[in-house]
Amino acid sequence: MGQRVTGLWPVLRQVTGSDKTAHGAAVRTAHTDAITARTETADRVVKSVCPFCAVGCGQDVYVKDEQVVQIEGDPDSPISRGRLCPKGSASKSLVTSPTRVTTVRYRRPGGTDWEDLPLATAMDMIADRVLQARHDGWQELDDRGRKLRRTMGFASLGGATLDNEENYLMKKLYTALGAVQIENQARI
């Protein structure tokens, strides 16, 4: 029995067999032969971009039964050429984690408990508050009578996870609203 068990050890198969570099049969077992990669059983592959930083590494998102089963680097991406950093490699947990919040959570001023809100209600609340802050902080003229047409009622701090297009749209939106305090975390 001892001979049979030790004969199964990959190191012994490597030393005693023809696969001295352990790139073939020496490391294969019935268990490894029975394993199938999640990428092989996926129904489809969706091209995406990693959300973690502004580099924009390409990702292949493997989907089976409308569920994300694997995320890997996109070898066709001219930016990352199939490579992902540790955060990008672990990004599957962003969409599959059981602790992921999938509802709008709101805690009223002075409140101690969170409540769920419909997305439309939350968006209306945000729009109302932006418009009110714009109105309350509006400066039409400076103290010498020069036109300013700006608000100091709110500011924007973009994050490094936003791509160029998102940052461009944010800059245009906040400028159109009259904000002058528009910055990006990537420059700080």
From TrEMBL:
It is found in: Cell envelope. Its cofactor is [4Fe-4S] cluster. It comes from the Bacteria. Belongs to the prokaryotic molybdopterin-containing oxidoreductase family. Its main location: other. This is Dehydrogenase. The lineage of its organism: Bacteria, Bacillati, Actinomycetota, Actinomycetes, Kineosporiales. Signal peptide: none annotated. Residues 43-99 form the 4Fe-4S Mo/W bis-MGD-type domain. InterPro entries: Mopterin_OxRdtase_4Fe-4S_dom. One of its GO terms (molecular function) is 4 iron, 4 sulfur cluster binding.
